[in-house]
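debug: dumping io for the single-chain case to check the tokenizer round-trip. Nothing else runs in this session.
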Amino acid sequence: MAFNLSRRGVDWAGNVRSPDIAQEDHHIFPKDWLANNRVQSEDKQLWSSLRDSVLNRMYVSAKANDDAKAQTPPNYLNKLTAGERRVLQIPESFLGPLQTPIKSEHFDAFLKSRYDLIRADFVGSVRDSLLPKAQE
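debug: decoded output
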């Protein structure tokens, strides 16, 4: 989450994200929505770990957190441009239609797509920080 926050960007409330300004821990897919729209027969512990995964969370302004409460990502993330979502490491798959009740395997696929974005950005950041040193 710290790496994502360090990339700054503008949240859906129009506030620049910064480690210097108070931020709130936001569940991208809200806890209440997941509790009400998951397959109820699936293991609660599994759903708790998916819901609270760092891949389903990010720091945003209090206004953005409040604006997104109990909404699904397509409802509040569409306020951002594709480029702004990319800086925040939000995959476009998060904007697609959601089948409810949502199965854990489908939700896990959403999280994996976010993991892939974050991994690519992190590897690129490390590579970029090492290249100038290697060329000296």
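debug: round-trip ok. Strands lie at 24-27, 57-60.
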